[in-house]
Structure to design on (164 residues):
């Protein structure tokens, strides 16, 4: 385990959790409405290439407090860190440790509440998958996870919604 990866069974400070020394979100004065042939869009007045992802989505600017091994460090402040959340979901990493969450059989484990389950039985969640090493700790940490309606489906496809 590296310097901020929680031990299996420990109460993890999730990899995606913002830390106390990190600054999330831009100064409101740095956002403007841009105009293009496609229409109006939100942009930064000093926008750089790294402000948008490969699909053109504008992401909030945020600082990161990282160790020399690129792991988040510091006191958890609550809330999600937008950049880490995006990377976790895009690459299907464990929300607790930031390591690949794919199981040996190719599926992913998601902790899902009843309200995230659609009428057709499909589950749609904003929460990243978890690896087997951290599944129990993640479920125990979240009060909603202890509810009787919480399930842990194994999924074959864990793509972003809506699919592109």
């Amino acid at each position: 385990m590296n310097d901020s990866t929680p031990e299996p069974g420990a109460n993890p400070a999730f990899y995606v959790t913002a830390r106390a020394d990190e600054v999330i979100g831009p100064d409101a004065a740095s956002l403007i409405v841009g105009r293009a042939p496609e229409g109006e869009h939100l942009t930064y007045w000093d926008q750089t290439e790294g402000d948008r992802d490969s699909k053109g989505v504008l992401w909030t600017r945020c600082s990161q407090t990282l160790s020399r091994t690129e792991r988040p460090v510091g006191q958890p402040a609550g809330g999600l860190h937008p950049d880490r959340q995006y990377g976790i979901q895009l690459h299907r990493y464990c929300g607790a440790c930031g390591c690949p969450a794919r199981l040996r059989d190719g599926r992913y484990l998601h902790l899902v509440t009843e309200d995230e389950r659609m009428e057709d039985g499909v589950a749609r969640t904003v929460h990243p998958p978890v690896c087997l090493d951290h599944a129990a700790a993640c479920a125990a940490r979240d009060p909603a996870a202890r509810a009787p309606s919480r399930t842990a489906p194994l999924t074959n496809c864990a793509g972003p919604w809506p699919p592109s």
User: Anything to note?
Assistant: The first strand starts at residue 17 and ends at 19. Strands lie at 17-19, 31-36, 39-44, 76-80, 108-109, 154-155. The CA atoms of residues 106 and 156 lie 7 Å apart.
